[in-house]
Design goal:
single chain, mainly alpha
């Protein structure tokens, strides 16, 4: 397994560790989840750079990279929904999940029918970037809320619009993907 693919596998491990930390009821575990998540959202850029620079682009990476992204974002969002004060709408998480399943199915169908794997498009990469920033901010708000008891109340209202923004960008990327396919 080449270095780029090892970095992708590291993202899976970091995603699972982030989810496990957020599943705990301890603020110390939530504090640990923040650097785990931040490290995980950096790995796609690092492994992409390594893969291109060292000519390590592989079919495994083309399949595993977007799956690792989905596990990271959706796992973290699902774990964050248990904190009611963050007001992350479950319908938003569902719509993000639905888009990922639909596009993943289309990519798989294309591979079966045409024998080629559709690579991630530019809008898909932008989608991942926006989702990563939004979820990182939600996680930061959770940690700030728990670490500083005097956190302003308006801070807890931010995750809702961040989720809405993520849903919009997610579905715009899907529409653009359909147009290009």
């Amino acid at each position: 397994m080449n270095l780029a693919n090892q970095l992708t596998m590291l993202r899976f491990v970091l995603a699972l560790a982030t989810f496990a930390a957020l599943s705990q009821d301890a603020s110390a575990a939530h504090l640990l989840a923040l650097p785990l998540f931040l490290a995980a959202i950096v790995t796609p850029w690092v492994d992409g750079y390594v893969a291109r620079r060292m000519k390590m682009i592989s079919p495994f990476g083309k399949v595993a990279d977007p799956i690792a992204d989905k596990v990271l974002i959706l796992g973290t969002l699902i774990a964050l929904t248990k904190t009611k004060e963050l007001d992350i709408p479950l319908w938003g998480v569902f719509l993000i999940f639905a888009r990922e399943v639909i596009i993943g199915g289309i990519r798989t169908l294309s591979m079966i029918q045409q024998g080629k794997l559709l690579a991630a498009e530019t809008w898909g990469k932008w989608k991942m970037g926006v989702q990563s920033v939004c979820v990182a901010l939600m996680l930061l708000i959770l940690v700030a809320r728990e670490q500083f008891s005097a956190a302003p109340a308006w801070l807890e209202r931010i995750p809702y619009p961040l989720t809405v923004l993520s849903v919009i960008v997610t579905w715009v990327s899907a529409i653009l993907y359909f147009r290009q396919s």
